[in-house]
TrEMBL record:
Family the UniProt entry places it in: Belongs to the aldehyde dehydrogenase family.
Originating species: Vibrio zhugei
Record bears the keyword Oxidoreductase: yes
Active site: 249
Residue intervals of the Aldehyde dehydrogenase domain: 17-469
GO molecular function: oxidoreductase activity
UniProt-listed Enzyme Commission number(s): 1.2.1.-
Protein name (Swiss-Prot/TrEMBL): NAD-dependent succinate-semialdehyde dehydrogenase
EC category name: oxidoreductase
Keyword ATP-binding: no
CDD domains, A to Z: ALDH_F5_SSADH_GabD
InterPro entries tied to this protein: Ald_DH/histidinol_DH, Ald_DH_C, Ald_DH_CS_CYS, Ald_DH_CS_GLU, Ald_DH_N, Aldehyde_DH_dom, Aldehyde_DH_Superfamily, Succ_semiAld_DH
Amino acid sequence: MNNIKNTSLLRATCSANDDAIAILNPANGDVLTHIPLISVSDIHKYIERSVLAQKQWQSTTAAERSVILQRWYELMLENSDDLARIMTLEQGKPLAEAKGEVMYGASFVQWFAEEGKRTYGDTIPSPSSSKRLATIKQPVGVAAAITPWNFPIAMITRKAAPALAAGCSFIVKPANQTPLSAYATAELAYQAGLPRDLLIVINHHSSVVIGDVLCEHPDIKKLSFTGSTGVGSQLLKQCASTLKRTSMELGGNAPFIVFDDANIDDAVKGAIASKFRNAGQTCVCANRFYIHDAIYDTFVEKFTQAVSELRIGNGLEPGVSIGPLIDERAKHDVLSYIDNAVSQGATIHYGGDSLDGLFVTPTVLTQVSQEMDIVQTELFGPIAPLIRFYDDEELLTHANDTIYGLASYFYTQSIHRALQIAEKLEFGMVGINEGLISNEVAPFGGVKHSGFGREGAKQGIDEYMNIKYLCFGGY
């Protein structure tokens, strides 16, 4: 089996100095290593190399590209334990969750290894007997991405795999908190046979500086970003100067709805999975809970019991289900959300404690109303605000009362209600009696201020391709 040791991941590390980023373990504050920074001039050189590599890569067949991607997928599986451990060390999520993310990230590589061979064009019936019409799909060119720290492998493979399968080259800026996962994943791609200039990982202490380069460089034809709505909006403005293709997966404020006819035990199980995965630090996690009055007390009791059984600690320890928050700022924000909600009338029904380090106990808030600030905030932490509702129309008004439109969830046993509510929720994704909805075969993305574009599924590769129309005359 190939091993990640003695690879570019380790070669990239260095001693502490002004030109390096210290990578910390959020569970205990230990310095794992230092990653050397690259200069802006070096970034431009990488882009030049990426342009040349892409022209050669585009000339290969989809089948040839598929072989390399399939091997990359196999190497990710073979090295899944190492990848998961790296992720837990630098990001903090429990080891079982990290292993799950590795498998999730690898699934996109496998999917697009095959999907790249299905980028079909069309033969179009011509309005003229003297012409024949058709379309073909071609890669956009050099693609770039800026990815977040909460899913440091999956957010890269979900973008890089379709780009490479389409015939693009790919440059990625991972979050400064979690670059090791990016280096390790890229190293396996190189071991699979991918030329290094086709998948380039870049680091800089300033995300703003890298954003400026990637958005405004004319040779980069596509930018994909996952992160906050505010940053996404700024990147879009910068991309306008070069009329760059973009896809944006931005903020979320997911409602989790439990109707009076729901299976409460199933709803509790789904709520725990949706809310507390990655300590609540996901864009699609349940953000506000709407519970029908008829079953509110029962749900609160069962949900609180389930929350109390979650074990907090270092993600490398067996049985841990809640790891640390990513940094001090994240912890400060979570505690501020709780304090603010209490000041507006909410009650801490369970948890709400600040523990040593970057840990906060999972928190259940009751007596929450729609008018409170916490209902309109993307929490990114282990907080579950529970809101009582009385009828479906009121529920829909409140659930859709947000600028965001990424994920939503509801539980009911009525097929009529399921169809009606699913159609009326203003979100790009809807989980019906299910708290975990992401996978490689379905399109991932949002509406409203949650962005645009889709990742995964057959739509994901189209984000990296141009449609060219061919008109044959002289018949």
